[in-house]
Automatic annotation (TrEMBL):
Name this protein carries in UniProt: ADF-H domain-containing protein
Gene: ABSGL_12801.1 scaffold 13517
Organism encoding this protein: Absidia glauca (Pin mould)
Top-level taxon of the source organism: Eukaryota
The entry's keywords: Actin-binding, Cytoplasm, Cytoskeleton
Keyword Cytoplasm: yes
Signal sequence segment: none
Length: 149
């Protein structure tokens, strides 16, 4: 069963998070009430990663899209995006099973991101760990000190 992602609000919010001039830096998408095959906007905000985490609940499944700023110094600020497939611990077995299939439909809308960080507990979404993963995905790591020189 494919997931209906046709609500224009989904694409609009995705573009808003990606927009450099927008203050919106996260979005969360889950299922319309009584419609397990229809994606809807569940929340968004300007309060950064911590505000995004506060939106995640143990009985909810959905997908988060977050803009983060990554820099090695004040001159090298880069914007990075993460996709967070979220399946809270209290989500039922049938819903869990469908998420793996439905993510392809979600990725047809939320198509540009640097890393994917699946999680079912808030402890799996440590911002410091995510920033480390983003740096590794970047390639070169200029923060590391060279001990042989």
């Amino acid at each position: 069963m494919s997931l209906n992602v046709s609500d224009p609000a989904i694409a609009d919010l995705y573009e808003d998070v990606r927009e450099d001039k927008s203050e919106t830096n996260w979005a969360f998408f889950d299922f319309a009430a009584g419609k397990p095959d229809r994606l809807k906007v569940s929340g968004s905000g300007t309060g950064g990663f911590e505000e995004f985490l506060a939106h995640l609940k143990s009985d909810v499944a959905g997908w988060g899209y977050v803009r983060l700023n990554l820099s090695n110094d004040e001159y090298s600020l880069r914007v990075k995006f993460i996709l967070v497939p979220w399946c809270g611990e209290s989500v039922g077995v049938m819903r869990r099973a469908k998420l793996g299939i439905q993510i392809a439909d979600v990725k047809s809308i939320l198509r540009s991101y640097h890393i994917e960080v699946p999680a079912s507990q808030l402890s799996e979404l440590d911002e410091k760990d995510i920033m480390t993963k983003l740096r590794k995905a970047n390639g070169a790591n200029y923060d590391r000190q060279l001990s042989n020189y």
